[in-house]
Amino acid sequence: MLAHHPDAELVARCLAEEEGAWTELIAAYGPKIFGIAYHLTYDRAEAEELTQDCFFKVWENLDRYEPTEASLLAWIATLSRNLCIDHYRKRRREKGFRFLTEDAIAPLLSGSDDPQANAVKRERVKLLLDAIGDLSDELAEVVQLRDLDGLDYREIAEFLNLPDGTVKSRLNRARVELAKIIRNRVGQSGDKPGSVFAALRPGGSAASRRASGNESARTAFDVLATPSLA
Predict the structure, then answer these.
(1) How far lies 54's CA from each of 23, 37, 79, in Å?
(2) What is the mean pLDDT of the chain?
(3) pTM beyond 0.70
(4) DSSP 3-state assignment of 190?
(5) CA–CA separation, 189 vs 149, rounded Å?
(6) In order of start, what are the domains of the chain with their CATH numbers?
(7) Max CA pair span of the chain
(8) How far is it, in rounded angstroms, from Cα 202 to Cα 199?
């Protein structure tokens, strides 16, 4: 293990049971793992329990971490993968996203002083999550990890144990499928200017291409900014 590597140093301190080291690790990586768990459950208590289970597994395997092979975040996420995915797939079968509470929706919304605008945003988020619930597991997982949790392609690839190219192709397929599902539900034509799914089509909207110059700026949440849903 490389002693000078920041991740290696933190792990070494944890293994030596240095006071405050484990708390530091949890503070550094807990929010990201909780975020993943929350977007797999949309239930705070359930997400906290899943996060605790993940870090218990991390503690049991901490002496196996090798910083030359992966970042500590990627390693923790990978170690937690089966636990998270099994929980996610079981929950999708049992509950889906159809009965989310207002408390579950709130963290996905940006604040506004306009009650009407907030109400529209809530309905858009519910529409999007409902559409994600209709995707296959393999497509729903990548769009959630990328667009809801903000993991990059490498982290998603390590988390799902997939090649980078497979992650990118699944993400593109997921966004296209979401566009189709939402189009059918709101009754809009795919070629209508400003339509809810325009930014999700291959190539995206002209505005998003000018803003980013590449595919990565388009996310499933582009749907939430579309005036045509108001």
Answers:
(1) 15, 9, 8
(2) 74
(3) no
(4) coil
(5) 30
(6) 1-95 (1.10.1740.10), 101-230 (1.10.10.10)
(7) 61
(8) 8
Tell me whether residue 206 is exposed, middle or buried, using C-beta atoms within 10 angstroms of its C-beta: 0 to 12, 13 to 18, 19 or more.
exposed
- How far, in Å, CA of 51 to CA of 31, rounded? 9
Q: Distance between CA 160 and CA 142 in Å, rounded?
A: 8
Distance from the Cα of residue 29 to its chain's centroid: 15
Q: Is the pLDDT of residue 2 over 70?
A: no
Q: Is the pLDDT of residue 96 over 60?
A: no
Are 131 and 178 contacting, i.e. CB atoms less than 8 angstroms apart?
yes
Are 84 and 160 a contacting pair, CB within 8 Å?
Answer: no
The three-state DSSP-derived secondary structure of 10-77 is HHHHHHCCCCCHHHHHHHHHHHHHHHHHHHHHCCHHHHHHHHHHHHHHHHHHHHHCCCCCCCHHHHHH
Q: Cα–Cα distance between 13 and 22 in angstroms, integer?
A: 8
**Is residue 37 a contact partner of residue 76, using CB atoms and an 8 Å limit?**
no
